[in-house]
Predict the structure.
Amino acid sequence: MCQLLGMNANTPTDVMFSFTGFATRAEEHKDGFGIAFFEGPGVRLLVDAQSARTSPVAEMVRRFPIKSNNIVAHIRKATQGRVALENTHPFVRELWGRYWTFAHNGDLQRFVPRLHGAFHPVGQTDSERAFCWLMQEFAKAHASVPSARELTATLGELLPVVAAHGSFNFMLSNGEALWAHCSTRLHHLVRQYPFTRASLQDEDVTVDFAQVTSARDRVALVVTEPLTHDEAWTAFAPGELKVFVDGAPITG
């Protein structure tokens, strides 16, 4: 299975600490990696069909001081579709005049929805097909950008159709919110004041967040497996859908 990383924050935030630990897991998940950073209405997408452990693109990401309010990253262990750039997550599409990014961990069997209009996959993955179908159904359900709560309700109605075909852990962002759905395994964490030190599970790296944040900062992280060993990660329940805005989950 692949590995997912998502971040949603109330202020532009550097994700390199988390990405460093995340990329280490590409030793096993070596069939490509990608990361999408939102910058205002734009999105900076960096993908490579090489492992994040050896890719020069991944090395550039580790050294590039990008800050963003919303980030979606993925390291791939291929199940459907050849190892190629067009099959590398995250995928990006435009809807309602804004970009949407999507990354999936899982395996969907015999999910071949009827697609029309602007949403067709470029590659051969079940993941991109599912993303195109979700975008298509969003466009049918809403004439313009809905609120995060409205779109969460729409997603809740659509998810069973896709999840009936297999494992559907995914992250979706439009640059304002981050949606995360768990079929089998996801964890989340909110970092906020008072900030403490954190140490990566997969690398000998520690950061004292109190030294690099302000009292008003807040950031939510969603990952397949916890990245640090000294923070209180919360596991999603199977079938749970969460949406994060301004660095915190919203309810109701």
User: Anything to note?
Assistant: The radius of gyration is 17 Å. The first helix runs from residue 16 to 24.
